[in-house]
């Protein structure tokens, strides 16, 4: 049932919080070059209104996640950090927020597939080596 409301007032077809920002960042990371709002809108696709996209770009810029420069009557945007650096910072923030670090790391490790676990083991072993 499209648009059906749950008891807490959110419809089924609503995006999860941060999903649009994530889609915009993914498009910008994939581009590897500055993009205008129209170019990002084309990459993100779907039924995203241009004004909504502009609002997202402005908010990401205000949060310090994007840089921008004038391009004609608008702006071009690009990420401040690459995707891996941003993901690592988020992981460190979760660990630093006062939650049970051991439980968070245990759950994270339990969700890794064998190849990702092997990469993590190699990285941990390399970090133990003196420089």
What is the CATH third-level topology name of the largest domain? Arc Repressor Mutant, subunit A
Mean pLDDT, nearest integer? Answer: 87
Q: CATH H-level name of the largest domain... which superfamily?
A: Winged helix-like DNA-binding domain superfamily/Winged helix DNA-binding domain
- How many structural domains? 2
Give the N-terminus to C-terminus distance in angstroms. 59 Å
Strand content: 5-15%
**Secondary-structure arrangement, i.e. CATH architecture of the largest domain:** Orthogonal Bundle
Q: Largest sheet, if any?
A: 3 strands, antiparallel
> In percent, how helical is the residue content?
55-70%
Q: Kindly state the number of beta strands.
A: 3
Q: Give, in spatial order, the strands making up the sheet with the most strands.
A: 1-3-2
Radius of gyration computed on alpha carbons:
19 Å
Low-confidence stretches: 1-12
Q: Overall 3D geometry?
A: elongated
What is the overall number of helices?
A: 6
Provide the succession of SSEs: HEHHEEHHH
Q: Quick one: CATH class of the largest domain?
A: Mainly Alpha
Class per helix and strand makeup: mainly alpha
């Amino acid at each position: 049932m499209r648009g059906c409301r749950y008891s807490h007032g959110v419809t089924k077809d609503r995006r999860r919080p941060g999903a649009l920002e994530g889609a915009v960042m993914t498009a910008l990371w994939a581009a590897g070059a500055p993009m205008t709002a129209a170019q990002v809108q084309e990459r993100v696709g779907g039924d995203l209104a241009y004004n909504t996209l502009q609002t997202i770009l402005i908010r990401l810029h205000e949060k310090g996640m994007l840089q921008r420069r004038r391009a004609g009557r608008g702006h071009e945007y690009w990420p401040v950090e690459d995707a891996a650096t941003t993901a690592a910072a988020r992981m460190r923030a979760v660990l630093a927020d006062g939650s049970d670090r051991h439980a968070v790391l245990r759950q994270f490790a339990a969700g890794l597939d064998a190849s990702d676990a092997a990469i993590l083991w190699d990285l941990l072993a390399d970090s133990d080596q003196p420089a």
